[in-house]
Amino acid sequence: MPQLNPNPWFLILLMSWTTYSLIIQPKLLAFTTTNPPSTKLKMTSKTTPWTWPWT
Prior knowledge:
Layout: H1 6-29
GO molecular function: proton transmembrane transporter activity
GO cellular component, one term: mitochondrial membrane
Main location: mitochondrion
């Protein structure tokens, strides 16, 4: 069963995570969000409970 041999797959996993951590992740984290979160307080509306006809 060749899929149980970790020799080639471990190297591929290690290289892909190294590539992701060192090259791709800093580029993704450098982007700024288009809508930064606001510090405005949210208005909470008062809701009334539903009145069921059979109670």
